[in-house]
Amino acid sequence: MANEVVLLDALASMFGMRARVALAEKGIEYEYREEDLMNKGELLLKMNPVHKKIPVLIHNGKPVCESLIIVQYIDEVWKDKAPLLPSDPYQRAQARFWADYVDKKVYDAGRRIWTTKGGEELEAAKKDFIESLKVLEGVLGNEPYFGGKTFGFVDIAFVTFSTWFLAYETCGNFSIEVECPKLIEWVKRCMEKESVSKSLPDPHKICDFVATWRKKHGVGVGRLSAYMSTVTLDRFECVCFWGLLSF
Amino acid sequence: MADEVKLFGVWASPYSRRVEVALKLKGVKYEFIEEDLSNKSDLLLKYNPVHKKIPVLLHNGKPIVESLVILEYIDETWKGNPILPHDPYQKAVARFWAKFLDEKCFPALRKAFSSKEDEQEKAIEEASELLKILENELNGKKFFGGDKIGLVDIVANFIGFWLGVIQEAKGEELLLTHKKFPILCKWIDEYVNCSVIKENLPCQR
Fold first, then answer.
1. Chain B residues closer than 8 Å to A83 by CB
2. Is B82 among the domain residues?
3. What percent of chain B has pLDDT over 70?
4. pTM confidence score
5. Which of A55, B134, B175, B180 could form a disulfide with A19 if both were Cys (CB 3.0 to 4.6 A apart)?
């Protein structure tokens, strides 16, 4: 039976990027559909009625939702190539734990950095964000990847945030490379993989989106203005980005 | 080599209980270590330095933390009486509902019972919407796992047991009524009568 794979996604979503990377790692052909998150399509609402969010992987008509659940599903169905999770149950538990840590700690603090006006709130967000990155840097240790010698589940869960690093740094006026040099080396190593580099948008595009959002919400554009108009944004992409705030 | 299994938990915690249910279902012998959360033990802090929380499963000296991660570990290590389906799609569906319960339902339910009067009506309405979604998912099945309890039933223990206890303690049916949620109430009856669950219900102090 032919495999029909569709991914409902939004360009700037670090969660959607995880599914893209996993599909690319396994060499799976699929149809990518960009969702207008300000005007959600019928298919998205039908396939994810509970959360109404992207990404949604539709495999032979059946939907799988939630990015880490999608990545595990991809790993289990296309199991003959590029295993994403280790085979040992204890190592798998560690991988699941750290992917969950990225979701709970990194995402929240990062979001606070680019949405707050500044002052104490921003400083608190930066502190939490850097702290969580340092913990992850410690977990990486001297291995090339979080998966050890090979790129794996935690690498996929976390590397997609790297497209947002420039935006976080600009909003928060700090350098991730200064704070966590090993992590930036790891990002560069991951970006050498086609499955990653082709799945992640240009960080300047993310900055552009963030600058547009901040201007609209009167949060202050500041340094981000340097990134505006370096990339041409069509209206569709702007609309997609603003809709992302629902995740 | 004999397995050495220890569980750091708290008797009143649904998160701790769900791990016990899974271990009992699999017939795994373990030592339960009750933690005092106001005075966390050195061992707990050693085995869960990141979150400093229970439950922590210690298997032959190696710690596993976060209850959903622990449940999958238990299922993958001890193969008898599987709690997750074998089929990848059904597995993904089970994981989805487990996450929905933990990330959406339980916070909403806790809020519904702890909100002050002026906010409570709204909180109860939000929690009701989420329970309705669960009802729809159950429709026609004895358990979320089908004929036997599975991951989602184990994770839904807060609804299975604690919700009824809280309502009784408050002396009124604020949220979970037979009229509003007939299917969910039927599931609760099946759930508490399921033998492995029965042996694991804390007494209603």
1. none
2. no
3. 92
4. 0.92
5. A55
